Amino acid sequence: MMTLLEQIEGHWTKEALDDKVAKWAKQLSDNEDTVREAAKKFHEWQPLRVYLSVTRAMNPRVSFSLRYQGQEVASLAVKGHDVNLVISRENAKNNMEYFQIDKQDKFSWKSLDAVTFRKEFKNVRPLKALRSQEHRVESEFLKEMANDTSKKFNGTLKNIRPVLLAGCPFQFPLPISGNTGVPRPGKGNIDILARRGTGKGTRISIWELKKPGTTAHAIEQAYIYSVTLIKMLRSKPWGDFWYKNIIGFKGKVPHKLTIESVVALSIKSEGNRRAFTSKLKEFKAANSLKVGNDTIKLYVAYYEEAPLRVPKGIQ
After folding, report:
1. How far from chain centre, in Å, is Cα 167?
2. How far apart are CA 116 and CA 114, in angstroms?
3. pTM, whole model, 2 decimals?
4. End-to-end alpha-carbon separation of the chain, Å?
5. Which of 156, 180, 189, 219 could cross-link 171 (Cys pair, CB 3.0–4.6 Å)?
6. What is the pLDDT of residues 93-141, one digit of tens each?
7. Euclidean distance between CA atoms 219 and 228, whole angstroms
8. pLDDT tens for each residue of 175-188
9. How many distinct helices (H) and strands (E) make up the chain?
């Protein structure tokens, strides 16, 4: 039976994924200045947060996703100096279902209608669990990672910052999916890509988040995405573009990389935590953590909610 690493490398060659990620990089590079200028045309208004998908960033018609606790509630469309709040039919349906906010249309971001829409989320309480609890958890992690104070994660995890695109959170795209625990050609996304550490000790940090009580395929997914990211960074001629322009390091990809890959879980039972930690240890023993000259370091982080904490850091 082929290992996960062998499967990923097989897909990479068979599906010509070097060419695919080169096409993505070229589109992002061509549109990079336009996207960065578009992001300067508006200010973010809490508690709403602005996200930018790579698919949107590749499109010359730049638009951003406006979210509340990770769930999209509208889009921001930028054309020249004009910024419009766009509440689609689907947005309106979900906003009514979850928040009892009844509004659909397109408005100038500075208009009274847009101001009213933003204010409605100041004191809103969702009527039921949001469509994606993982997106809610992701939103809280991003908020804490971006915190510049010593109170980040309630003081339990330091020196970590999310990788942003034009100042916006985004899910880093991959040409291999791992959500079933098996690598398959197709759309994959890293939940949160971050940089952790200081100075020359700063490393790439991949975070695979699971909603409270969920662990399915978490280790395999984190590993698959780590190997796939390494393949992207080693691809020619665009590997340095991903490393510098998107992830935010200076210079070219170094000869040797160490990538930390963290599975973030919320498990209340100490016994279940020990069982998962043992499973992680067994996985590391059975799978290669070396990909060419590069090294993957797999960790688990057990988080607590309200306030968000990672009491023992990454283990």
Report:
1. 13
2. 5
3. 0.94
4. 30
5. 189
6. 999 999 999 999 999 999 999 999 999 998 888 766 776 778 889 999 9
7. 14
8. 999 999 999 999 99
9. 9, 15
